[in-house]
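so my prof wants the structure for this chain in the tokens format not the other one, which i didnt know existed until like an hour ago. anyway here's the sequence
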Amino acid sequence: MNNNQINKQEIGCCNKCKESFKCDILFSFSRNIEHVDYEYSLSRTYFILKCPNCTNIFFKRLSEFITTDTNDDGTYVDIYPQQANELREIIHNICVMLVKNGHRKWALIQLLHELNNALDNRAYMLASMGIRTSIDMICRKLIGINGYSFKQNIEKCRTNGFLSQSQLDILKPVIELGHGSVHRDYKPDESEVKIAMKVVLNLIETHIIHANVIKSVLRKHLRENSIPFKTITDRKVVKNSELSTPAPKAIPQN
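here's what i got, hopefully its the right format
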């Protein structure tokens, strides 16, 4: 315990209020780790803090990373219990609606849960890669075909009318975010990833969930009114011979 920290304060973001305050330090402990072989040192300080606003007690870990050769450093803060990201409830509701609409076994549901965990843990590079993957999965679901490249899937969604040019213009920076993390070691920030996630959730809601609901309501309406309804996948291939106009019967000569 650091005695000089007793009765002092430390800035911490309360995971209940979701705001930063000067919190009372109930306990603190520091340790330094020297990695001579890898030429870096790590200093960590652990705090138990009490929020002055709601009296909530939470844990904070402050990590300071220093490389001895370049003097580059980095400071990282972790709060426990972790704050639930603002998109958690939306992602949960999307997953529930996907299950209700017959997509229980779709791997996208598992991916959305993992994206939730990545956002909670501020793993924004992983999240951006997962968001790019989710777009690919959505496109393959819409066109109903596997085996194409990511770029081809996007283009087929456009040519088949699932995505308009304006929607593609919105998706491009989202896709580039994932490309950057995969190919160029780009480290996106929290706001970039959350905006990208909202775009993907909107895509799922519009083209998968709402489309299924509309089809279901339409089928019910047509069935109640005894009107035949066939989707594109229900239609049978019609031979060219069936489309040709039959020749008129010969009129007998008197």
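also thought this was worth mentioning. Confidence is low (pLDDT under 50) at residues 231-248.
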